[in-house]
Amino acid sequence: MRKTLLTAALAALTFAAFAQENREADSLRYRYGRQQVSATQRKPGTKYADTLDTGNPGVKVVLYSNGTYRYVKDPSVMAADSVFTEFWDTKTVNPYRETPDAIPDRFSIWVVDSLDSYACPNQTTPRSQFGYRHGRRHQGIDLPYPTGTPVPAVFDGKVRISDYIGGYGNLVVIRHANGLETFYAHLSRRDVNSGDWVSAGDIIGLGGSTGRSTGPHLHFETRYKGAAFDPAWLIDFETGTLRHRLFKIRDWYFNPNQRYVQKVDDEDEIFRTDEEDRILAEEQAKKEAEARAAAEAAAMRYHTVRSGDTLSAIARKYHTSVREICRLNGIKETTILSIGRRLRVR
User: In this predicted model, what pLDDT tens digit does every residue of 215-230 receive, in sequence order?
Assistant: First the structure.
């Protein structure tokens, strides 16, 4: 008996320690994930000087000509990931067969972690927003961008498209390890080829006005599995910062009418843990069930049987059916009504 009690106590302590570790991990995830990220400090166009190995075959140390360095994921290792092989097409703008309907209601992806960096395409006020424009869907935003201005890659990734594509003009599409793709359109020049690996801040081309364009600007898109969403959910272009390291996506982001809207409770909503979401969902479901029950109770109506009443007469009076009255009261159409009996009619 004593041994059993000791075993149970040990199990309880182990569970408590595990729960504490999970809470601490969630706290760290919350704090780290909600951090904003400023543009990379490495100046655009900084040349590579050398690459050094680390103890991890998937991680390298990259040295730059200006004396700076950073840890990066080894492209040769990343290339084996299915994200860079499945639905890979160097000509088709949207190679995915999935539609927004096939995307989960909500999910999260890391946009920038300790090995990935970020560079703002241009800190400015967007000229044209995401959504419908002149009756046509505008799947990105337009940033003022003089012709010849260097355009940096926003995140690390692999170039999927570098080509002249219809209304996009000179277009570069980069796929990133988290499944996101970023689009850079209307370039006057493309400086990368399909299959190239780039780091955030690397110059991929020059701003321009090619394709269907009314003047020099950068058309910038963000997509997940081919579905476009407002880039402002990711980037605050006014300040040039990435809003959060951890990006929680809602399926309604892919609605062409859904632009970014800052809400007071955005951060709390975005960074709630799955367990907190489950509890909140249960509480919400309980409140909705109680509200439905209250509404149903308020809508209930009763009739007290009087001499001469019949089910058909009562049904006509309350604009319902005999079958419905029988269902609500658990009786049959042949049931003899007793004077004074209360029947539910709604």
Answer: 999 999 999 999 999 9
